[in-house]
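Write out the bound-state structure for 1PR.
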Amino acid sequence: MITLLDYGAGNVRSVVNAIEKLGGKIKMVNKPSDILNAEKLLFPGVGNYENMIKILHEKNYINPLQEYLKADRPFFGICLGMQALFEGSEEDFSGNESLGVFKGRVKRFKTRLAVPHIGWNGVNLKKDSPVFNGVIPDTKFYFVHSYHIVPVDASVVLTTTQYDYEFVSSVQKGNIIGTQFHPEKSGNNGIKLLENFIYQKDLKSRQKADIKGKGLSKRIIACLDVRANDNGDLVVTKGDQYDVREKGDVRNMGKPVELATRYYKEGADEITFLNITGFRDFPLKDMPMIDVLEKTSKNVFVPLTIGGGIRDYTDNKGKKYTALDVAAQYFRSGADKISIGSDAVYIAEEYLKTGKKSGKTSIEQISRVYGNQAVVISIDPKRVYVNSPGDAKNHHVIKTSFLGPENEAYCWYQCTVQGGRTKRDLDAVALALACQDLGAGEILLNCIDKDGTNSGFDLELITAVKNAVSIPVIASSGAGSKEHFVQVFKNTNAEAALAAGIFHRKEILIQDVKIHLAQNNIEVRGSL
Ligand code: 1PR
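---
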């Protein structure tokens, strides 16, 4: 029996699914005494440190947690659940007392690399631990965080990880274990760690394990555009420059849960669902995406992102829902990140006009509660050609090697909303910068000109946006061969590449893309 401490933020469903898949039984903490009555306590956390500590205080969980931990009873903290063990964090301005079981504090990454640190990275085991039994030696785990622990006592360090510099990625002292990475999102090897925690009787025994990992991988993401077809069935579709109809019908590339499961088995590092329905009503009623997420997360143990319709709503009965309500429902159903498209454009326009942060936008609210890393901005830009930078003074203009129809040598990238149907007077670089400022943690950079063309990524667009921001960028649209993935990683600093059509049509398997990348000395995550 595993007792799970869910303080109400982030995706605990994947942890529950992983434990249940391993045959474990789960009891949720509902009151302080449940903590002291636990046989083994699992504390998964994502989001914002200050918010987490505040909730632990409000629920009167601090004292029983300290008592449980001081007695060296079995505990597994994930991400914030591990950070909480220390004395405080640079992310916390409230002054609320932390658990303080381990000496040391949590600090923000100081690096020229992208922050948050998102993706699959290796670990170096610093001492023997039964928790790593059976885990393959060069395995990678999924990280998503902007802050890392700095323990005072070196003897608690279980693993370190390299991201510009070496940081502590997990700790163990006696029966208390904590990982910065998410085992529940790290495929079979991550699940193995949880299995060891659940079933090992003696977590203190010093069984040998030899794990030495390489650095952060470039991620390969499979994207599923989902909508109802004319018969009302929910299907994965795929457009050509966002037009998803072929001879009048919505193109049907398969069923969402089945395709996501296939991509997980083929080695996808993440899966993104974009609900591309034009919502008439409240999205959580309008489309069974919740069901898709719940079913997918039962068997797919890599990060899931969901986008489409994340904004404030008033339903047809006049009831108001905030974007935060919509996002919360998605996180509860198994999503790790949400992606905001149209709403981000309107928010950025307002922010650039007034120069003020209202604190009430979807980007600010969701990042405050769930952390920056949970908020992805999906950009749908189109090229606009001009003869000189002076012709588009208010926009970020680049010199292009691909001349326009009138031989124009410059272009800028115009943002669109509503699935590319409406153009706005805002460019992709300005949008990305504004959203980063407001708290977004990652950019999903599509390109309508390239979408579905199989002609390769728009390297000029990706370079322009990536050079402007400090958060990770996912390159999207246009992948047509394995060589295109090599090009995007060799010629730009994008952290991830996303593709849809080429995977749906089985023109290439994700594993083959990775083998080709590895042959070209690009770091990738190998097996599940
Ligand atoms: O505006 O917050 O409701 O979000 C809507 C979301 O749906 C946005 O993320 C937007 O990109 C997406 N979307 C809207 N309409 C379409 C459409 O296709 N008609 N799909 C659409 C966007 C583009 C990519 C695609 C890549 C790779 N899909 O995600 O998967 O371009 O394709 P490829 O490898 O086949 O070239 P909101």
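---
The chain has two domains: 2-199, 219-519.
The domain at 2-199 is CATH 3.40.50.880 (Rossmann fold).
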